[in-house]
Amino acid sequence: MLKHLLIFFIIVSAATAQPTDSKLLKEILENLIPVFSNIFSEPDQYKLQIIYTQVNRDRNNVPELATHTYRLKPREYFYPASTIKIPIAVLAMEKLNSIENIDRDTPLNILTEMPGLEGILEDKTSRTGLPSIAHYIHKLFVVSDNDASNRLFEFLRRDYLNQRLWDLGYTETRIRQRLGISLSEKQNRYTNSFRFFHDGSIIYEQPSQKAEIDLNVNYNDYLIGKAHMKSGKRVEQPFDFSKKNFMNLMEQHRFLIQVMFPETAPNYKQLNLTENDYQFLYGKMSLLPRESKYPLYEDDNHNYDGYCKFFMFGDTREQIPDHIRIYNKVGLAHGFLLDNAYVVDVKNKVEFFLSAVVYVNQNETLNDNTYEYDEISIPFLAALGNAFYRYELNRVKDVLPDLTRFEIGNK
Question: What residues form DSSP beta bridges with 341?
Fold first, then answer.
């Protein structure tokens, strides 16, 4: 227990201490600097942040973590995009454990309570043809489905979601809104009511709710760019992100570590999840579109392996080897590109955590859909992932890890 507390406090201190760039991380990045000189010569312009956590195991396979950072700016705003879907999915699983008689596979209906917030009675992409928390988590991770994430946001309800994250120690996080749809602040405060069924009978109802907690701005530099598009017209002002979601990179990184290594968190910060819950989440987090049965995703240029795996594979259409599993969530929006991943190679006994954000917007105009993702940021994150993978592949370890827990089959 003492060792687990020590690991937790080391990670937390890395998030709160005055950040300094890691010498080791600079050495690993050295070969990338000539290739991506534009990014490394102007890291402030590209809003670059990188966090790498090295995992060392003792003889009992207990992980000991060492975290290294590059240009860590906990209060610098970046748009987290779909990376906030990890805590949404995990906390939805956790909430199920506080409700009797329902589980992740229990069919549900969502009723329409407010104009613009549509309910749902069926889901033809699922095995049963009905919506469920499990199916929403599946779609959320495999192809980053926005509707699935928004349904889980509604199930959690905004106040509960934020308060639970704060109670767990993620105090800088603010999750305000659904993704992929344009809603007012009032609409994002409301969540529709839920009904869960067994054999056609209602077994649990959750009423609609209006969020009351004040999600005050808790970060700097939330005015981005020089101009933005609004209703098809150019506005010569920066885009205001103060009412958007935010989860800084270290809190994302810490949350992923807590999910993958729950034993590293002290008892009072533990998630209320069973081992079966964790195994379900691991299976979905690492699942590739071609491995999904419901829905069945076509093997095309959109649903390739690297579609939601930016580190190492984002810039290639090649299949990811079976012995490499990446437990992650990417984000891409408003010029920001992110990945937050635990990378495992069960064949070569490699494991590490890596999180990064980079911003590309050469014309400094938001919402014009002109961002240099394909030209700059996706190749950069792919190269970044490969640089750390190569380093870990050659790193000498006193004890090789037992990665049996992460040998996840197709689910």
Answer: 328, 354
197 Cα distance to chain centroid: 30
Spatial distance between the Cα atoms of 378 and 311, rounded to a whole number of angstroms: 8
DSSP string for 74-134: TTB----GGGGHHHHHHHHHHHHTTSTT--TT--EEE---BTTB--BS--TTSSSSS--HH
Domains and CATH numbers, the chain: 2-406 (3.40.710.10)
* pLDDT of the residue at 19: 62
So what's the pLDDT on residue 11? 53
Q: Which of 297, 293, 329, 325 is nearest to 310 (CA)?
A: 329
**Coil, helix or strand at residue 220:** strand
Residue 2's pLDDT is what? 43
pLDDT, average across residues 256-279: 95
DSSP string, 298-359: --SSSS-GGGG-HHHHTT--SPPPTTEEEEEEEEEETTEEEEEEEEEETTTTEEEEEEEEEE
Among residues 367, 333, 338, 251, the alpha carbon closest in space to that of 48 is found at 338
In angstroms, how far apart are the furthest CA atoms of the chain? 64
CA distances from 108 to 15, 22, 293, 342 (A): 39, 48, 21, 32
Query: Residue 195 gets which letter from DSSP?
Result: E
User: Is the omega angle on the peptide bond into residue 43 within 30 degrees of 0, that is, cis?
Assistant: no
Tell me the pLDDT of the chain averaged across its residues. Answer: 93
- Give the pLDDT score at 386: 98
DSSP 3-70: HHHHHHHHHHHHHHSPP---HHHHHHHGGGTTTTHHHHH-TTTTT-EEEEEEEEE-TT--EEEEEEEE
21 closest CA partner among 45, 48, 42: 48
